Amino acid sequence: MSSAVISINILAAGLLVIAFFKDRKKTWQSLIAAAESFLRILPLALMIIVIIGLFSAFIPPSEIMKFIGAQAGWAGILAIAALGAVLHIPALISFPLAAALLQSGAAIASVAAFITTLTMVGVVTFPFEIKELGLRLALLRNGLSFIMAVIIALIMGMVL
Amino acid sequence: MNKRNTEKNGKERTSRKNTIRDYLVFFTVLVAGLVLLLIFPDKKDAVVTMAWSYFREMMAILPAVMVVMGLFSVFITKEQVVKYLGKTSGAKGPLVAIFFGALPTGPLYIAFPMAAALIRKGARVSNVVVFISAWACIKIPQELVELRFLGFKFMGTRLILTIFFVIFMGLFIEHLVAQKKQKQIPTQ
């Protein structure tokens, strides 16, 4: 087991013990909330796992490289950044997907662009954002976030 | 209060509907995958090995992530965050906003009304923008999952760049919004 897996499990167990001594009722509430969100994310997680399995066996790395590999260039990065902005996948699940894409030849910049727009730009949540913060602020935040996500991705492609 | 409750129930109902839809989509993908493997049995081993290794990874990490998020969402209330963030000012502001945004306390649509409450309370626009952006993309348990799957260099570099750009964006948007307000004064 990796250190990240161990540390998140220790963190969860430690917080659970502290919470239990502070307030038992709230701790139960938290566990129920945790079970609910686990059941909510489970179908997406399982789906991504099946897709990763199928992708790795059926789509050769050369195909993935063509679209989002190093030679795909600007168009590839912009396309996958736009895809990340539109899709509404929980970030938690996007990381294994990103890892599988990297393994099969995707460029670091493309993968970074995808994850960053996925979390920072929300086309699906955009109506909520307008309702609460107004069109101007929502538009500025999402628009600038998209540009920054692409810049972050390009820097990551150069540094790593 | 009543309206708030019905709104909450409405959201819960749509989220339940979405979950059922997600399960149906998963079963469709699963069946499609099984049919594919029946047609190409030689690919079976590769698919199963890959899927199984990712399955084990995710089952080792996801329950703990959910427990951490559940604890924070119950023990730290929206009101506490709004109260604390509304008070902070100065250079500390963006860092506090990032800290509270990064606490694992729930989906993004909860953050929008909190941000609106912060603006009404007179918090700086830059801090509010930083808060929402951090909420959207810098979650503590998420960073650990990213660390596991993409490695320390990838996670660390992306985290530092994101923090830097999010603060920069907050100040920039605040600057734009303030400029517009100044222009409006003479005409009023």
Describe the structure.
The complex is a heterodimer of chains A (160) and B (188). Chain A folds into two domains: 44 residues, no CATH class; 101 residues, no CATH class. Chain A contains eight helices and no strands. By secondary structure, chain B is mainly alpha-helical. Chain B folds into two domains: 62 residues; 113 residues, no CATH class. Chain B has eight helices and no strands. The longest helix of chain B is centred in the N-terminal third of the chain and has 38 residues. Chain B starts with a helix and ends with a helix. At the A-B interface, helix 1, helix 2, helix 5, helix 6 and helix 7 of A face helix 1, helix 2, helix 5, helix 6 and helix 7 of B.
Quick summary:
The complex is a heterodimer of chains A (160) and B (188). With 160 residues, chain A is an all-alpha fold. Chain A is globular.
Mean pLDDT of chain A: 90
Low-confidence stretches of chain A: none
Low-confidence stretches of chain B: none
Question: Which class do the helix and strand fractions of chain B yield?
Answer: mainly alpha
Distance between the termini of chain B: 37 Å
SSE string of chain B, helices as H and strands as E: HHHHHHHH
Portion in helices of chain A = over 70%
The computed structural class of chain A is mainly alpha
The helix/strand series of chain A, from N terminus to C terminus, equals HHHHHHHH
- CA-based gyration radius of chain A: 19 Å
Share of helix of chain B, binned? over 70%
Quaternary organization: heterodimer
Helices of chain A, by number, come to 8
Strand content of chain B: under 5%
DSSP summary: helix tally of chain B? 8
Total number of beta strands of chain A: 0
Number of domains of chain A: 2
Sheet-strand content of chain A, in percent, reads under 5%
- The shape of chain A is globular
- Total strands of chain B: 0
Counting structural domains of chain B, the number is 2
